[in-house]
Amino acid sequence: MCLHVVFILFTILIYQVFFKEREEKRKKIRSKFFLFMLMILVFTMSQPVLYTEIYKYDFKAVVIILSFLYGGKKVGFAAFLALLITGFFTDQRLPVLVGNYTVYCLLLLRITRMFHRYQIKGKVLVISLFYMTIPITRGIFLELKGDYRQTYFVFGSSLIVLATLIAIVYLIENMNEQLEMKQELIRAEKMNVVSQLAASVAHEIRNPMTSVRGFMQLLQKEELTKEQQLYINISIEELDRAQEIINQYLALAKPQTDQYEIINLTSLIQQSIDVMQSYALLNSIQITQEVEPSLKIEGLKLEVQQVFINIIKNAIEAIKSDGEIGISGSKTADGFVSIQIKDNGVGMTKDQLKKLGSPYYSTKEKGTGLGLTVCHQIVKQMGGQILINSELTKGTCFTINLPAYKKKSEEYTP
Fold this sequence. Notes:
This protein is of the alpha+beta class. The chain is 65% helix and 13% strand.
C-alpha cells in the first residue's frame, strides 16, 4: 500500500509541476489530467494489495473521485469505462465493479456540485464523508459474514486511502490557487501598463483640448448665426465629454474612492439610455427596460454612466441593425444591485469570452479593448463584478453586480 501511495502522490506531483492546465482543459477527455488518472488506474488495479485470493484492495476509488471532482462528467465517466476495461483484464469481479461504481458515479454527480462551493477545508470534509461510505458499507457486509479480521484490514487500508485522497486534494487545490494567482498577477501587470499609458496620454491631450475649448468660448461672444452657435455649443459639450472620459482613464492610475456619492441608479440608467437612443434608432434597434424604482448605490456618477454607455454601445454595434436590447435591474437578496444588458447580436465564442476585458483585445475591427477594461476596473473598484454570458449567433448578456447603498443607522442619543 505504501508503494501505491508513493506512486500516486509522485504522479500527481509531476502533473502539478510540469503539466499545469486550466480548469476547462482538464474537463476534456484528451487532457493530460485524464492521461495521468489513467496511468494511476492501470497501475493500482494491476498491482492490487492481496489479503486473500478473494479480497483485493487498490486505490481505484481515488481515481474515480478525482476524475469527477476535477475533470467533470466526461472525464469521470471515461475513467469509469477505463476502470471496467482494466477490471476485465485484471481478473476482478466485473459485476461487483459495475454495480458498486455505477452507484458511486451517480452520487459523485451530486457531490461535485456541492464540493466546489466550499473552501479547501470544506472540500476535504465533504470528500472525506463521501469516501467513508465505502469502508462503512463494506465493513457492515463483512460483519454480517462474520469475517472480523477482514473488517480490521478494511478500515486500516481505508484510512490510508483517505489520507492519500486528502493529500491529493491539497496538492491540486494548491495548483489551482497558484494558477489563479499567476493570472491575477498578469492582469495586474497589464492594468498597471494601461494605467501608466492612460495617465501619460491623458495629460498630453488635456492641454490642446483646453486651448481649443478656450477659443470656442471666445467665438461664442462673436455675432454668429443660430446654426453656428449651435455647432459651437455641441463642440464645447463634446470637448467636455472627452474631458470626462480622460478623467475616467486617469482613474485607472488613481482611483477616487474618497469622492463617492449616493447614486440613483434607476434614473442614471434612464439617462444612459437617452444618450444612446439616437444611435440605436439610426441602426433600427429598440431599447427596452424593466428596472426597479429607487435602486441606489455608492460611487462616482460619471464613471458608472460610462460603464452603461460603453456596454450599450457595444451591444448596438454587435447587433448592427434590426435588433433589440433589453435592460433590467433589481436588488438581490445578498445586498447587491444586479443590472442586465442583453442583446440579440452576433454573440461570441468561448475563446473570445476568455479574452474579453483584457487591455487591447477587441472583437471589433477598429476597437482598442480599453473601453471594457475601464468598465471592469470601475466596477471592481466599487466592490462589484461584471459577468458575461454569450452564445454565437444568439447574443450576449452583460450582468453588472454592484453593492447596494446601505443607509447608515442613526446614532442613538439618550
